[in-house]
Amino acid sequence: MKNNIALDAFHYGMGTQISHRVYGSNAKEALNAAQGEAKRLEDLLSRFIPQSDVGRINASAGKVQEKISKETFCVAKSALEFTRLSDGLFNAAIGPLVDLWDYKHSTKPPSKEKIVQVLSLINAEDFEINSAQMTAGLKRKGQSIDFGGIGKGFASDRFIKIFTDYGITSAFSNIGGNVSTLGSKPDGKAWRVGIKHPRQDGLIGAVAVNGKAVVTSGDYERFFIDNLGRRFCHILNPLTGYPARSGLISATVIADSAMTADALSTALFVAGIEKGLEIIKKCDDVQVILIDDILTIYVSKELNQKFDTITDISVRYI
Ligand code: AMP
Ligand code: MG
């Protein structure tokens, strides 16, 4: 019989809020281990920590390859795979463009000249990883990698692995809106994961899942509005150098792996519906909930019995 006493934990890590709910007798130990893991991963993957693996790779761009941990290698390898899979719309080497747009402080877009100049540095083919040496490096000075679109998903997968190692069979983690579930709820029912309304407080819908990750990329997460009232969001189109304007304002991906869901949701946000569907056709067992700028919701038909809208917004199954 499952132990149905919940233990909740909240902490900060990887630049965002993290919460967990864990059921079972080892819940406390499992939560402590997850919190420690979040710190450990941030120390490896953050580009804002100079001695992290990513910090060192970026500082050594155009000079030397850096020794990296197996975790960083795993994220880097996946980031490059999703770069290829999305024809570069998800881009492992987007760092210089993210720096240029500087969401934390900007109030207006950078100049066209600056964007063109920085775009010439964005080339994921210049990011090389070596599994024999466990090294990684960038070919040109000024280039940088950024795992902001994939790292939280990797951390989510690690949390679920830790819970499993502690004998937990029912849990969920939410890292900055990236939700991962382990098993079902203790009563055997599916978890219901809320999908945020992109233009209002509260939810637009919810999806029932067991043991899956549900990850959303949206233009409401981080953005600034300039003095002409234009919204500039934190997800950038590596082809244009500007924030993605694909017609989608929210892209949710449901997959077994949170890292896959994280990278794909970022890719789909940039790609838009048509190209996005081509991308997910290449992946196994991945479903989507896509919301366009007139608030039509496009939902994978596999989710037909699993997705409910909170409001009477129109849903199209695809
Ligand atoms: P997410 O919220 O998972 O979609 O990730 C957004 C974050 O990923 C941004 O804050 C950037 O750090 C990074 N990012 C922005 N645009 C891209 C892109 N086209 N490819 C990969 N990472 C990106
Ligand atoms: Mg992402």
Explained architecture:
The structure is a single chain. By secondary structure, the chain is an alpha+beta fold. The chain has one domain (1-318): T-fold (Roll), CATH 3.10.520.10. The chain is 30% helix and 27% strand. Helix 6 (151-165) crosses helix 7. The longest helix is centred in the last third of the chain and has 24 residues, at 258-281. The mean pLDDT is 95. Residues 149-150, 217, 262-263, 265-266 line the site of magnesium ion (MG). Adenosine monophosphate is lined by residues 90-91, 94, 98, 146, 148-149, 217, 221, 234-236, 238, 262, 265-266, 269-270.
Note the total helix count.
7
State the strand order across the main sheet.
1-2-6-7-10-13-14-15-17
- CATH H-level name... which superfamily? ApbE-like domains
What is the residue-mean pLDDT, rounded to a whole number?
A: 95
Bound molecules: adenosine monophosphate, magnesium ion
Structural class call reads: alpha+beta
CATH topology: T-fold
The rounded Rg comes to 19 Å
Name of the CATH class: Alpha Beta
Helices and strands, in order, run as EEHHEHHHEEHEEEEEEEEHEEEE
| CATH level-two architecture | Roll
- Uncertain spans, ≥5 residues at pLDDT below 50? none
Q: What is the rounded distance between the termini?
A: 39 Å
Strand content: 25-35%
User: What's the number of extended β-strand segments?
Assistant: 17
The overall number of domains is: 1
Sheet with the most strands? 9 strands, mixed
Percent helix range: 25-40%
Shape: globular
